[in-house]
């Protein structure tokens, strides 16, 4: 609806920024994805992102268009961290499934910063990966870092069968599988991260 309204507007906006997700890229324990990597056609979530981005695409070039594919957003007052804090504070946290899957994350301040940069910098267009530069973080490493930030152990794994039973097969995929996503174009576009490293990001979130 927004894309249609923009296309029909007598005066087009200068920029149109859309946020989707890194679910566009196929989960892998070995592959590395940047903004030019293929994807978008292998499961429910990747197809959802593809259709989402296609629905928002504007005809012509009168409006500068940017798509930010976000990773897991870390921030206070809810989101991914909100669901994790209680078990981790109780010393019951740990890796999900094998823990080997990549965990592409971004601090909420940096996601907002990328959106602002995309709106304000006239040279920015196309796809930007909204993830932190520390793209090699695995789920097990994230669990250890969150436990360390809270001063709690984090070694009790959550079996994949339990995750599937609680969240259902489709949603469980987002927790049990992951992608190594790098923000190559985001960095090349000149964005400077406030929280490029996981430890500092978690300390700010739970502080």
UniProtKB/TrEMBL annotation:
Residues 159-204 form the DUF1731 domain. SUPFAM superfamilies: NAD(P)-binding Rossmann-fold domains. Pfam families: DUF1731. InterPro entries: DUF1731 (IPR013549), NAD(P)-bd_dom_sf (IPR036291), SDR39U1 (IPR010099). NCBIfam families: yfcH. This is Epimerase family protein SDR39U1 isoform X3.
